[in-house]
Design goal:
two-stranded antiparallel sheet, globular, 2 strands, single chain
């Protein structure tokens, strides 16, 4: 499993390739190397960033096809809060290489 695959496994949804690559770059994560746990805090920060994007994504409905996509924003917010607490983000500070929130 690579760092990128670990990030995707943590999310539970498939963001666009551009969003994934941007998160990897923003948090200085080498996505193509084997996941060994050392990037765990940074991968969590990248997951939080991607989930925050998902919260701002509008629900989609296609009346003709009878399809719709609705996001449980409350569940996403709880997951973000859980991830933040696991990596000690409080008062705008994080433990991951000086990245602040």
């Amino acid at each position: 499993m690579t760092n990128k695959e670990r990030l995707l496994a943590m999310l539970g949804f498939s963001p666009s390739p551009q969003a994934i690559n941007a998160a990897l770059i923003d948090f200085q994560i080498q996505g193509d190397i084997v996941y060994d746990g050392s990037a765990y805090p940074l991968i969590r920060l990248a997951a939080i960033r991607l989930m925050e994007v998902l919260i701002t994504t509008p629900n989609v409905s296609n009346g003709e096809a009878g399809l719709s996509t609705t996001y449980d924003r409350g569940a996403i917010e709880r997951r973000i809060a859980s991830l933040k607490s696991e990596i000690n983000i409080s008062a705008g500070k994080s433990i991951a290489r000086g990245f602040s929130w």
